[in-house]
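RETRY 2/3 - previous attempt timed out on the joint model. Re-submitting the same 573-residue input unchanged.
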Amino acid sequence: MNNFIPAKFRPVLFLLLLYAGLIVLPHFLKYHQQDFLIFLTINILVVVSYRLVTLTGEWSLIHAVMMGVGAYTSALISKNFDISFWITLPLAGVMAGLVALLLSYPLFRMTQFYFLIGSFAAGEAIRLSWIQFIKPFGGTGGTSAIPSPELMNIDFLEPIPYFYLVLIVVSICVYLLYRIENSRIGLTLHAVHWKGVLAESVGVNTWNYRTLAFVIGSLFVGIAGALKVHYIGTVAPKQFDIGFMVFILIWVIVGGYRTFYGAIIGAVVLSVLDEILRGVEQLRPAIYGATLIFFILYLPGGLESLPQKIKQKFRANRESAT
Amino acid sequence: MTPILEVKHLTMRFGGLLAVDDVSFSVNEGEIRGLIGPNGAGKSTTFKMIAGFLSPTSGDVLFRSNNITNQRPSRIASAGVVRTFQETTLFQELSVFENVLIGTHKQAHTNIISAVLGLDRQMQNEAIEATTEVLEFMGLAERKNQLAAELPLGLQRALAVAISLAAKPSLLLMDEPFAGMNPEETRHMMELTERVRESGISIVLVEHNMKAVMGLCDRLVVLNFGTVLDDGTPDQVRHNPNVIQAYLGGG
Ligand SMILES: Nc1ncnc2c1ncn2[C@@H]1O[C@H](COP(=O)(O)OP(=O)(O)OP(=O)(O)O)[C@@H](O)[C@H]1O
Ligand SMILES: [Mg+2]
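RETRY 2/3 succeeded.
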C-alpha cells in the first residue's frame, strides 16, 4: 500500500492529514480538553525554540523565563497602552530577543556546568524582579485582565478560534525554525557544538553563532509566552518558574534531541500521558519522574530512536530465526 | 616583495616556563617554510599564537604587513591564515562531506533572512561544488558519506587538511600532517602538499618526519627550548653542528 504513493509526496500527504485532523479535532473535545490542546500547541513552539538554543551544545535554564519576558511584554503593553495584540505579539519576540542579546555577554563567558548555573541565576533574577516590582509587573499574583486579540467579529475568548490562531502562529514559527536548522546556519551551529576550535579555525566566530542561537530561540519562545497569556488572561511569575523549565527539559530528553521532531514527540506524548493521569492527581509527579529515569536508562536516544530500535530488534530476531 | 608572514620577537610564557622566547622569522609568498625542532621546542605554541588561539606574552605577527596579533582566530582565518591541529581534530559525528562543507564557511556564510528564504541557494551550491573539488583533490570523494570517526587514521589526517583547504587559505599552517601516516600515505601527502603550494598557497610546515621536511621545504627554522637555533635552507641546517647536537641531545 505504501508503494502507491511516491516517497516524495509522503511528507506532504502526512502534513495534509495532520492539519486536517487538527482542524476537526477541537470540535470533538470537551472544554478543558480544548484548553489542553491550545497549551500543548504552544508548548511545541517552546520545545522547538529550545532546540535551537541547545544546538550549539549549551543547555540553558533560562528558556522558561524568556517565555515570560515575551508574555509580560505583550500583556503589559497591550493592557496599559491599549495597543493591539497583533502588534504586541511580535514585540514580545523582539523584547525576549533583546534581553537574550544583553544576557549573552555575561552568560557566554561561561560554558557547560557554569553556563547552566549562570543561566539559572540570570533567569531567577528576572523572575524575582517580576515579584519585587509590583509596578508594573503586579507582584506574585501577576497581572490579569489582559485583553484578548481582536479581528473582525471573531471571539478569541472561545477556545476553538483561539486554537486556530495558535495553530497558525505556531506552525509559521516552527516552519521558520525548521528552515533555520536545515540551512547553512544550522550546519554551522552543529559545527560550533561538536568542535568549536575547529570551527573557529576555518573562520566561524563561535561567540556570534552561540549568541545567534540564543537570541533567535528566545525570540520565538517570547512569542509562545505572549500566545499563552493572552488566552489565560493572566500573567504571573509562577507560570515561568524552574518547575516549568524542568518540564521543557524532560520533554526534550524523553523525545530525543538528535532530530528536529524528537522534542515535539516528547512534548506531545508526555502531555497526553499527563492529561490521561488527570484522575490520579497524587500519582502524577511520581509517574513523571519514573518515566524520565526509565528513558535516560533504557532509551537515551529518546522516543525518536524507538522506530530504529524496533527495526533492529526485528532484524536481529529474523536473523537468529534463520 | 614583502613576506606574506612576519613573526617578530614572539614570546610566550606559561608561568615559569618560556615556551617561546623571542622568535622571529618570515615566510615568503609561495614558499614552503619548515618549522622544526625536538619535542617541546615551542612549535605548536608558535602556531597557536600566529593563528590567534593563544595571546603572546609579547611580540607581533604581521600578515601581508597587517598586524594580526591578538585578533580572534575566526577573524585571522577569514583574512586567510588557516591552521591545522596536531591532534586529529574533526567533526567526528558528521560525515566527511559535511566536515569539508563546514570548511567553506568563508565563502558560504549567510544571514538568517537569506537562510530562511533560500536566497543564498546559489552560494550554497557553489560551496557544495568547492567541497566536492577538495574531496576529489584529497582522494576522499568515495568516502564522502562516511562518518569522519569511521575513517582510518591516515585518512582522518587527510580530512583535517581538506577542511582547512576548503577555507581557501593564502597561508596554511600545518601541524604534523604526516603523523600517523604509513610510507605510502606520506608519499601521497607530500605530492598533495606540493600541489597545494603550486596552487598559490604559502605553507608553514611543522613536522618530525625528516624525509618530508627535507623533500618539501624551501627554508627551515629550527627551534630548541623556545629559541631559534638556525634559519636557512635544508642543506645549511642539516650541517649545522648545533642542530645535530640539539636533535641527538634531545633524543
Ligand atoms: N597551555 C600550556 N600551558 C603550560 N605549558 C604549555 C602549554 N602549552 C604548551 N606548554 C609547554 O610549552 C612547551 C612547548 O610546547 P609545544 O606544544 O609548543 O611544543 P612542540 O614544539 O609543538 O612539541 P611537539 O613536537 O611535541 O608537538 C612544552 O614544554 C609544553 O609542555
Ligand atoms: Mg606540537
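Residues 31-240 of chain A form one domain. Closing ticket.
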